[in-house]
Design goal:
The protein has about 290 residues and is of the alpha+beta class. Helix 5 packs antiparallel against helix 6 and helix 6 crosses helix 9. The protein starts with about 30 loop residues before the first helix and ends in an 8-residue tail after the last strand.
């Protein structure tokens, strides 16, 4: 936690906190960052700044521009300002976990942290992701702030996908469950370092017993059959040290419920060429060799 305590506890999706000096006096602009950090809340908009400092709106905006140039704040979207603690001065920002909920609220977007970023939070990132990956209900432009690189992926009916709440330094964030993470990785291997890396991450999720048949049974119906086939194929091959039969069973049952298998047209690597042998069990064209780093 960057600050000593919360002035107001924030719940995910709530309105931005309106800050007030408990002594009733204005906060000098040069002290604004430290004032916020000492209270555990360092995300503000122009209205908050005017309330805290007593400055008119135009002057408050000019003040925040000056404080941004001085490296005390950064602005992830117009009208939203995030204080940068001294320990993150070289970053030019703070970790994405600590402002993503506030950014999504400001943009009026539903979201969850997904793909490799979710895998890392579940303890299964073989290598630290180079970007912070977020699934959103409507398109959001990718953006970079110093060392922090945000990448957004649109997903229809996003609220239906299973998520969990995780604590950050500034509140709580939504994160894909391990099962949603596994299915997302199987659906978008090109955004997860390729199938070799996906297999590696899945192997770590399995080895750490993060995946459950019940969790897959809940999440799997939301995905295309090609994703179920790809994940099932990967579960069969990612590790010799774990029995994945119980994990594969919900995927097999769902595929059976969706009707008879037609001539295989789904590719193991969706970005690869349509050639290779066919997996009889999963109905996939094995158009690439997988070598997980386990």
């Amino acid at each position: 936690m960057y600050g000593l305590y919360y002035l107001h506890m924030r719940q995910e999706g709530s309105d931005l906190t309106t800050f007030r000096d408990p002594h009733g006096g204005p906060v000098a602009a040069r002290h604004l960052r430290d004032y916020l950090l000492s209270r555990g809340s360092h995300t503000v908009d122009v209205t908050d700044v005017t309330t805290l400092t007593g400055l008119p709106e135009r002057q408050a905006t000019a003040t925040m521009t000056r404080l941004r140039r001085a490296g005390q704040f950064f602005s992830p979207t117009p009208g939203l300002y995030v204080a940068i603690p001294p320990e993150y001065a070289s970053w030019g920002a703070i970790p994405a976990m600590d402002f993503i909920a506030q950014l999504m609220h400001k943009l009026n977007r539903r979201y969850y942290i997904g793909l490799l970023s979710a895998a890392e939070l579940h303890g299964a990132a073989h290598q630290r992701p180079q970007v912070f990956q977020v699934m959103v209900d409507k398109q959001v432009t990718d953006r970079d702030f110093g060392r922090v690189r945000l990448r957004f992926y649109s997903r229809a009916k996003l609220d239906r996908f299973p998520t969990v709440l995780r604590n950050s330094a500034t509140g709580q964030v939504r994160v894909a469950t391990p099962e949603t993470t596994a299915l997302d990785l199987a659906s978008r291997p090109q955004d997860a370092g390729g199938l070799d890396n996906v297999a590696t991450v899945l192997g770590e999720l399995v080895s750490d017993q993060r995946l459950t048949p019940a969790g897959l049974d809940t999440a799997a119906p939301l995905y295309h059959r090609s994703v179920l086939r790809r994940l099932g194929w990967l579960l069969d091959r990612i590790t010799d040290d774990a029995d994945t039969a119980a994990l594969a069973l919900p995927l097999e049952q769902l595929l059976t419920e969706r009707g008879p298998r037609k001539r295989p047209t789904d590719l193991l690597d969706p970005a690869g060429r349509r050639r290779g042998t066919t997996s009889n069990r999963w109905g996939l064209i094995e158009n690439v060799e997988i070598e997980p780093d386990l």
